[in-house]
Amino acid sequence: MENIPIRYIHEGPKEPNLSGSFSVRDIQNLLLEKDMVQELHRHDFYYILVLKKGNGYHEIDFKQYEVRNHTIFLMRPGQVWKNRSN
């Protein structure tokens, strides 16, 4: 199996009134008007992706899931995933 890169969270501003290392980020600011297309990778953290609007597919542990409006994806550390837009 190929070497799958691991993504890490870089320290950023702490959220007020949240405990531990919990962080909330607006993905629109991260994408800068680009489509959310990423190659196969893993995270070293829990990841909750909440989408108000979207289309395409996420592949989590090599199983494909459709992205639609009002979709939530939950991923644990080490899961393999990639995403692509239609």
UniProtKB/TrEMBL annotation:
Record's keyword terms, sorted: DNA-binding
Pfam families: AraC_binding
Domain AraC-type arabinose-binding/dimerisation per the UniProt entry, residue ranges: 40-80
Taxonomic superkingdom: Bacteria
Protein known as: AraC family ligand binding domain-containing protein
Organism annotation: Flavobacterium taihuense
